User: Which sequence fits this backbone?
């Protein structure tokens, strides 16, 4: 078992970097690894782009689904353990999409924050486009609960 990851995504981005995967729940970790491997085999473009993203399990009180800062995929084990393989694959591809299109706003990315910036609206718009593209490409299934896509915040 690896060292536990106690992560607040707002504090981590650009401040701490993990260089190897960090997890406590082996089942959730294996689900995410399977999703990454599945992307590599079935959708090599997406799979290759996700190879360098480090997986970090985060407490569910900080991250309720999946998140990225451009270097890591942070995930809630509670959430991941409820996903099918198709849904986990979709979730990993969703986070990869945020990274490759610079939605994370990290070092070297376009900084969009100012007093008029609505980060929540920006994220919802990005999620809408990402989910549409992934569904169109046939990459897994979007996780849905009570009629709501879980990766649209």
Assistant:
């Amino acid at each position: 078992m690896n060292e536990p990851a106690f992560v607040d995504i707002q504090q981590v981005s650009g401040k701490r970097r993990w260089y190897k995967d960090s997890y406590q729940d082996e089942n959730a970790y294996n689900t995410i690894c399977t999703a990454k491997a599945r992307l590599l085999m079935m959708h090599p473009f997406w799979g290759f782009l996700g190879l360098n993203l480090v997986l970090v399990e985060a407490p569910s009180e900080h991250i309720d689904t999946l998140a990225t800062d451009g270097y890591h995929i942070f995930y809630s084990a509670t959430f991941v353990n409820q996903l099918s393989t198709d849904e986990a694959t979709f979730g990993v591809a969703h986070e990869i999409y945020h990274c490759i299109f610079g939605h994370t706003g990290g070092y070297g990315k376009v900084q969009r924050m100012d007093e008029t910036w609505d980060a929540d609206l920006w994220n919802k718009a990005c999620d809408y486009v990402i989910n549409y593209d992934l569904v169109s490409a046939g990459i897994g299934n979007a996780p849905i609960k009570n009629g709501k896509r879980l990766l649209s915040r």
User: Anything to note?
Assistant: The two ends are 31 Å apart (CA to CA).
